[in-house]
Design goal:
single chain, 997 residues, alpha/beta, Phosphatidylinositol Transfer Protein Sec14p, Methane Monooxygenase Hydroxylase, Chain G, domain 1, 5 domains, nine-stranded mixed β-sheet, four-stranded parallel β-sheet, 13 strands, 57% helix, 9% strand, DBL_dom_sf, PH_domain
C-alpha cells in the first residue's frame, strides 16, 4: 500500500526556520511577485543541502498559487560577506530552488577587495550558474530601492515593512495545526457518515431506540468538536487581526493579510463542512425516527387488528335473535355489553388511523405501507359499527315482533274468556241479546289498539327475522287469531238470528256496563303532552330577565375586574409575606406585567366586539335599510384602521407580552422592537377627527342603537373608538410604574442582607443598567408616540396643508399668536401700532414654521376652532430676535433678505421665552450642521453687524390680545418651558445673536 504523501509543514523544519538564513517577509515586487530575502548569515556555506531544499520548498508553498505563478524575486544581502558566499548562494539557488524565478538582486560586499572579486567572479561564473533570469549586482540599498519599493522591504534593507520572524513562524504553525485539525475532523465526520449509511436497521423497537440514542451521542460529540474547532479558529483569526483592530491607523502587512485570508478560507471550509454534516445528520435522523415511528405503528396495528378481529369473531357468533321477549331483552343486554367492550378498541383503531394520516402528511418514506393499513383499520371499524347497528336493529325488531305476538295471544285469550262468560239464559230476551252484541262489538274495537296487521302484511314486515321456530310460533298465533275472529263472527250471526225471532218489541233499556267485562276503552284520551305548546305571558319576561341577568353579569365581571386590578396594585404596594406552605408571591414587576397582559386581552376583545358588532353587520341585507347613505359611504373613515390594530395586537403583540410574564426584563425590548409597528396608532389618531365628524352626523341613526343593544354595551360607539387612545396612556403608565420600581435607588441592596435568612424572603434584585436604559427608552418612545398622536389629531383640523408636509420634519410645538406683518418701509415699532394684528395658529417643525388662519365654526359644543393653511417658511432661511423694552411677549422672525418680517406676540413671557429658545436651538443646530459639511475657508463670515442686538428686560409689558399654547403632552407644560429657559433667560440683561443659515 502506497504511503500518503504529506505536505511539508512548519513544525517539520522549525529549527531550520529559526536559523533565519532565508525569510518570506511578505513584500511584493512591482508586478506582485513574492520576495524571498537571504539576509546576512555567517554559516550559509555550512547549511546542509537538505535543510536548504526544505526551507526553499516550504517558503515557495506559502504564497497563493496566483502569486507564485508570477515568479519569485530573490534579494541576497552580502554587504558584509565575501564573493565565496555569493557564489555558494547562487549555486544552491540554481540547483535547489523549487519555484519560478523572476529576478535575483544581490547587494555586493562593501569592502573594495571583495567587491572587485565579486565583479570579476560574476563575469567568469555567470554561465556556470545556468541562470535563466537576470542577476543584478547592486552597490547599495538605494540601488535596491530602484527595483523594489521601500514599503515592501524590511528595515535592514532600508524599508518600512514590519516583520517579526518569530511571530511569522507562530502564525504559520497555528494555521497549519488548525488546518490539520480541520482535516482530521472532516475525516472523522466522513467515517461517521459511512458508518451511519451502512448500519443495518434492527427489527425490534428497543433495539432501534438504543441505536438512535447511540447515534445521537456520537453526533453530539462530533458537534461539540466542530464548535470547539470553530471557536479556536475564530480566536486565532482575531489574534491575527489584532494589530489592525488596536489602532485604526495601523494596517496589516502583506504576509499578515495572507494569513488572515488563509484563516478565513479555512473557517469557511469548516462552516461548509459543518452545514453538510448537519444536513446529512438531519436526513439520517429523520429516516431513523420515521423507521421507529413505522415500527410503533406496525406494532400498534397488529395489536388493534387482533382486538378488532376478536370483536368481529365474537360479533359473528352473536347470531341468535331470541324466541321470546325475555330472551330478546337478555340478548340486547349482552349486545350492549359487547358494544361497550369494543368501544375502547374502536377508539384505539381510529386514533391509530389518525396517526397514520399524520405520518402520511409528514411525507413518511413508508407511505405505501401506511396508507393500506389506515384503510384496513377504518374498514374494520366500519364493519364492526355497521354490523353492530344491524344486529341491534334486528334485535329491536325481534323484540317488537315477540311483544306483538304476545299481545295478540293475550287478546285472543281475552276474547275466548269473553265468549265463555256470556250466559246462555240471557239470550232468551232481546235485552240480553243486545247486551251480548254490544260487548262483542266493544271487544272487537280494541283490536285497533294492538295494530294487528293482516297475515300478508305481517309476513312482509318481519320476513327477515322469521326463523323456523319464530315462523311456527307466528303461524300458531295468527291461526289462533283467525279462529277467534271466526268464533266472534259466528257468535254475532247467532245472536242476530235470535234477535230477529223475538216477537215482542224491544223496550229501550239503559245499558249496564257492570254486566260486561271491564276492558280498557280503546278511545283513551291523548295525554296533554301532545297538545301544541302555547306561549304564556311570562315568556317575554323570561327573555327580559335573561338579558338583565346577562347585563348584571357583565357589570359584575367589570366590577370584579376593577377589584382585581385594585387588589393587584394594593398587593404590589404592600406585598404579603411568604405563605407557610411555600407558595411564592409574584413580584411587583410581574404584577404589573400580569395586569398588562390581562388588560391587553380585554382590549383585544373590545376591538373584536366593535368589528363583529358594528362593522360586519353593515353588510347584512336585513340591516341595510337602517344605515344612512352618509354612514354607508364613509364607514372606512368612521372606523379607520381598527382592523389593523386588532390584527397586530391579537396575532403579534399579545403573544410577545405573554412571553414577558416570566421574564419582565424583556418588556422594554418588546416595546422597542415594535416601535415601527406601533405607528399604526398615528394613522388611527390622524383619522379620528374625521371619524368624530361622521359620528356627530350619524349618531342618532337606528343602526347604532340596534348594534349597541345587541352587544349589551352601555356606552355609545364613539366612546369605544377612544379605547386605542386610552390604551396608549395605559402603556405609558405601566412603563412609568415599572421604571419607578426598577429605579437604581430601589435596586441597591445592602451586602449584609445577603447573609442570614434573607434569601428566603424572595429573589434578590440587583441593579441592571441595561434594563433601566431599555425601560427609559421604551417610556420615551411611548411618550413620543402619544405626542405624535395628539399632534396628528390637531393637524387633522388643518385644511389646505401642502402635500409635502412630511418633509417639514417632526412637529415640536404649536400655539396661537397675534401676528403683525412688517413691510420693508415700515420697520419702526411706532409704525406697528397702526396695524391690527391677526390671530394665527403657528406650528413649529424641525425644518419649517407654518402659519394657519383660525376660523371659529359652530358645532354641538359651541364654537370650535378650525385652521386653514396660509404659508410656511424654512427655518434655515430665517433669523430671529427679541424686541426692546415694553415688548417682553413679542419676538420677530425674518428671512435673510429682510423682505418678510413677522412680529409674534405670545400669551405670556414664559411662552415667548419657550418658543424663542426652541427656535434658537434649531437655528444653531442647522448652522452647526452646515459648518460640518463645509470647510472653514468656504464658510461665509457671520454678519454680526447686520443683526441688531437687543437688551432683554425682565419687565412685564401690557397684556394685549391673549394667545394660547397647546402643550405637546401632559409632561410638556409651561413649567417645563421655564426650566428649559432658566439658564438662558436671567433677570439681568442678555445679548442674543442668532445667525441666519
Amino acid at each position: 500500500m502506497q504511503q500518503e504523501i504529506r505536505p511539508l509543514v512548519a513544525v517539520d523544519i522549525i529549527e531550520q526556520l529559526h536559523r533565519q538564513f532565508a525569510i518570506l517577509s511578505g513584500g511584493r515586487g512591482k508586478d506582485g511577485a513574492p520576495i524571498i530575502t537571504f539576509p546576512e548569515f555567517v554559516g550559509f556555506k555550512h547549511i546542509p543541502d537538505e535543510d536548504f531544499l526544505n526551507v526553499m520548498t516550504y517558503l515557495t508553498s506559502v504564497p497563493s498559487m496566483e502569486a507564485a505563478s508570477i515568479g519569485f524575486v530573490i534579494v541576497i544581502d552580502r554587504r558584509r560577506d565575501k564573493w565565496s558566499s555569493i557564489k555558494a548562494s547562487l549555486t544552491r539557488i540554481a540547483v535547489a530552488f523549487p519555484g519560478n524565478l523572476q529576478l535575483i538582486l544581490i547587494l555586493r560586499p562593501s569592502r573594495f577587495i571583495q567587491r572587485t572579486f565579486t565583479d570579476i567572479g560574476i563575469k567568469y561564473y555567470r554561465d556556470e550558474f545556468k541562470m535563466k533570469v537576470p542577476i543584478v549586482m547592486l552597490n547599495s540599498v538605494s540601488d535596491l530601492h530602484d527595483y523594489i519599493d521601500k514599503s515592501q522591504l524590511t528595515a535592514d534593507l532600508g524599508g518600512t515593512l514590519e516583520y517579526r520572524h518569530s511571530q511569522w513562524i507562530n502564525h504559520r504553525t497555528a494555521i497549519e495545526n488548525f488546518a490539520l485539525a480541520l482535516k482530521t475532523t472532516a475525516q472523522m465526520l466522513q467515517t461517521f457518515g459511512a458508518c451511519l449509511a451502512t448500519t443495518e436497521l434492527p427489527r425490534s423497537i428497543p433495539s432501534t431506540e438504543d441505536l438512535l440514542m447511540s447515534h445521537m451521542r456520537q453526533w453530539n460529540k462530533l458537534q461539540d468538536e466542530l464548535k470547539l474547532l470553530g471557536k479556536q479558529g475564530a480566536t486565532l483569526l482575531s489574534c491575527m487581526q489584532e494589530p489592525a483592530t488596536k489602532s485604526p491607523t495601523s494596517k496589516l502587512s502583506l504576509h499578515e493579510v495572507e494569513n488572515v485570508a488563509t484563516m478565513e478560507r479555512l473557517l469557511v471550509q469548516l462552516d461548509e463542512t459543518q452545514k453538510a454534516f448537519i444536513q446529512f445528520w438531519s436526513e439520517h435522523h429523520l429516516k431513523l425516527n420515521q423507521y421507529l415511528q413505522l415500527q410503533h405503528f406496525e406494532h400498534s396495528f397488529c395489536e388493534v387488528k387482533l382486538a378488532l378481529d376478536n370483536l368481529l369473531a365474537e360479533q359473528a357468533e352473536f347470531s341468535d335473535i331470541g324466541d321470546s321477549v325475555m330472551h330478546v331483552e337478555q340478548l340486547l343486554k349482552e349486545h350492549k355489553k359487547l358494544e361497550g367492550e369494543g368501544q375502547e378498541s374502536l377508539e384505539k383503531a381510529q386514533l391509530l388511523a389518525v396517526i397514520g394520516d399524520q405520518l402520511i402528511q409528514s411525507h413518511h418514506y413508508a407511505v405505501d405501507s401506511i396508507r393500506p393499513r389506515c384503510a384496513e383499520l377504518r374498514h374494520l371499524c366500519d364493519d364492526f359499527i355497521n354490523e353492530n347497528k344491524k344486529k341491534h336493529d334486528i334485535l329491536e325488531k325481534s323484540l317488537e315482533l315477540h311483544r306483538r305476538l304476545d299481545k295478540v295471544s293475550q287478546w285472543c285469550e281475552a276474547g275466548v274468556y269473553l265468549l265463555a262468560s256470556q250466559a246462555v239464559d240471557k239470550y232468551q230476551s232481546r235485552e240480553g241479546i243486545d247486551i251480548a252484541l254490544n260487548d262483542i262489538e266493544t271487544f272487537l274495537g280494541t283490536a285497533k289498539e294492538y295494530q294487528l296487521p293482516s297475515s300478508k302484511d305481517f309476513y312482509n314486515q318481519y320476513e327477515l327475522m322469521l326463523t323456523l321456530d319464530i315462523k311456527t310460533k307466528a303461524q300458531k298465533v295468527l291461526q289462533k287469531l283467525s279462529d277467534v275472529q271466526e268464533i266472534f263472527h259466528k257468535r254475532q250471526m247467532s245472536l242476530m238470528k235470535l234477535a230477529a225471532r223475538q216477537t215482542r218489541p224491544v223496550q229501550p233499556v239503559a245499558p249496564h256496563p257492570e254486566s260486561s267485562p271491564k276492558w280498557a276503552s280503546p278511545k283513551i284520551s291523548q295525554p296533554s303532552t301532545l297538545v301544541p305548546h302555547q306561549k304564556t305571558s311570562e315568556e317575554p319576561y323570561t327573555e327580559t330577565d335573561l338579558n338583565s341577568e346577562e347585563k348584571e353579569d357583565d357589570e359584575t365581571k367589570s366590577e370584579v375586574k376593577n377589584e382585581e386590578i385594585l387588589e393587584s396594585s394594593h398587593d404590589a404596594d404592600n406585598p404579603e409575606p411568604e405563605q407557610p406552605d411555600g407558595s411564592k408571591n409574584l413580584s411587583h414587576s410581574r404584577h404589573i406585567i400580569r395586569d398588562l397582559v390581562e388588560t391587553e386581552v380585554t382590549y383585544i376583545k373590545e376591538i373584536k366586539n366593535i368589528i363583529d358588532g358594528y362593522i360586519i353587520p353593515m353588510d347584512f341585507i336585513w340591516l341595510k335599510h337602517l344605515i344612512p347613505d352618509v354612514l354607508r359611504n364613509n364607514k372606512e373613515f368612521l372606523f379607520g384602521n381598527i382592523r389593523e390594530l386588532y390584527e397586530f395586537h391579537s396575532r403579534t403583540f399579545l403573544k410577545e407580552l405573554e412571553k414577558c410574564t416570566e421574564n419582565p426584563e424583556l418588556l422594554a425590548r418588546c416595546f422597542l422592537k415594535r416601535k415601527e409597528d406601533l405607528q399604526i396608532y398615528f394613522k388611527y389618531h390622524k383619522n379620528l377627527p374625521r371619524a368624530r365628524a361622521i359620528w356627530q352626523e350619524c349618531q342618532d341613526c337606528t343602526y347604532f342603537g340596534v348594534c349597541q343593544r345587541q352587544l349589551g354595551h352601555s356606552l355609545p360607539l364613539f366612546k369605544c373608538l377612544r379605547e386605542p387612545s386610552q390604551r396608549l396612556i395605559k402603556y405609558q403608565m405601566l412603563l412609568k410604574g415599572l421604571l419607578d420600581f426598577e429605579s437604581p435607588e430601589d435596586l441597591e441592596m445592602d451586602p449584609s442582607d445577603l447573609e442570614g435568612g434573607s434569601a428566603k424572603n424572595g429573589p434578590k434584585r440587583t441593579k441592571d443598567s441595561t434594563f433601566l436604559a431599555d425601560l427609559q427608552q421604551a417610556l420615551a418612545m411611548m411618550e413620543d408616540l402619544i405626542k405624535s398622536c395628539e399632534l396628528a389629531m390637531d393637524l387633522a383640523a388643518v385644511t389646505g396643508c401642502p402635500d409635502d408636509i412630511g418633509k417639514f420634519g417632526k412637529l415640536l410645538m404649536h400655539g396661537s399668536f397675534n401676528v403683525w406683518t412688517v413691510h420693508k418701509d415700515r420697520y419702526k415699532m411706532k409704525d406697528l401700532i397702526r396695524f391690527k394684528p391677526s390671530q394665527r395658529q403657528i406650528y413649529l417643525f424641525e425644518r419649517e414654521i407654518m402659519f394657519c388662519k383660525i376660523q371659529l365654526e359652530p358645532s354641538d359644543q359651541g364654537l370650535s376652532p378650525h385652521y386653514s393653511f396660509k404659508k410656511s417658511m424654512k427655518l434655515m432661511t430665517l433669523s430671529i430676535r427679541q424686541l426692546g423694552r415694553g415688548s417682553n411677549r413679542k419676538f420677530e422672525i425674518a428671512n435673510q433678505n429682510g423682505l418678510e418680517k413677522y412680529i409674534l406676540q405670545a400669551a405670556s413671557k414664559e411662552i415667548r421665552d419657550c418658543w424663542f429658545s426652541e427656535i434658537s436651538k434649531l437655528l444653531m443646530k442647522q448652522q452647526n450642521n452646515i459648518k460640518d459639511m463645509i470647510s472653514p475657508t468656504q464658510l461665509p463670515r457671520p454678519n454680526f453687524l447686520n443683526q441688531k442686538s437687543i437688551i432683554c428686560s425682565p419687565e412685564e409689558g401690557p397684556q394685549q390680545n391673549s394667545a394660547r399654547l397647546v402643550p405637546l403632552s401632559q409632561t410638556s407644560s409651561l413649567q417645563n418651558c421655564k426650566k428649559e429657559t432658566s439658564v438662558i433667560y436671567k433677570p439681568s440683561r442678555i445679548w442674543y445673536f442668532v445667525i441666519a443659515a
